[in-house]
Amino acid sequence: MTQVVAAIIKKENKFLLARRAKHKVHGGKWEFPGGKIDLYETPEQAVERELYEEFKVKTETLKHLVTITHDYKDFKIELMAFESVVTEGDFELNDHDQIAWLSLEEISDYELAEADRELVDKLRTIL
Ligand SMILES: Nc1nc2c([nH]c(=O)n2[C@@H]2O[C@H](COP(=O)(O)OP(=O)(O)OP(=O)(O)O)[C@@H](O)[C@H]2O)c(=O)[nH]1
């Protein structure tokens, strides 16, 4: 099972989502930014590294919020979501073609990565 981390970044009741670039696996789908955990890395280090690679922003990981698993048939992921805050930098797009700040209601209108529907449902109950 592939371990993936995702950052939940909240600003005035809106959450940061990013759209995966067309050429990537699940291209065109919206997700919470993050990626696979590298060998010898903690989940927190992975979130912070990914956010820097993807957007050139520095973040601090506050706490683990929820973990879900999803079976994409050809691979299975364990998706761990962490509450993060941006401490430095302005968003620059590298791996995504768009970002958006959305309320939990607005998120329903976006085409999410399959695994994220359950994640959003869980977030609704705790945030
Ligand atoms: N970052 C992120 N990935 C997600 C989410 N939901 C979800 O199904 N995934 C899936 O988890 C996997 C994460 O891989 P990735 O491609 O973003 O990770 P990476 O940057 O480390 O990988 P790469 O360097 O191989 O491209 C992808 O298959 C992605 O579609 C989510 O909310 N955030």
TrEMBL record:
Reaction catalyzed: 8-oxo-GTP + H2O = 8-oxo-GMP + diphosphate + H(+); 8-oxo-dGTP + H2O = 8-oxo-dGMP + diphosphate + H(+)
Keyword Chaperone: no
Domain Nudix hydrolase span(s) in chain numbering: 1-125
UniProt source species: Lutimonas vermicola
Name of this chain's protein: 8-oxo-dGTP diphosphatase
Similarity remark: Belongs to the Nudix hydrolase family.
Keywords per UniProt: DNA damage, DNA repair, DNA replication, Hydrolase, Magnesium, Metal-binding, Mutator protein
Sections of the chain in a coiled coil: none
Keyword Zinc attached: no
Cofactor(s) required, per the database record: Mg(2+)
InterPro entries for this protein: MutT-like, MutY_C, Nudix_hydrolase, NUDIX_hydrolase-like_dom_sf, NUDIX_hydrolase_dom
CDD domains found in the cross-reference section: NUDIX_MutT_NudA_like
Domain of life: Bacteria
Any one Gene Ontology molecular-function term assigned to this protein's record: hydrolase activity
EC number: 3.6.1.55
Enzyme class: hydrolase
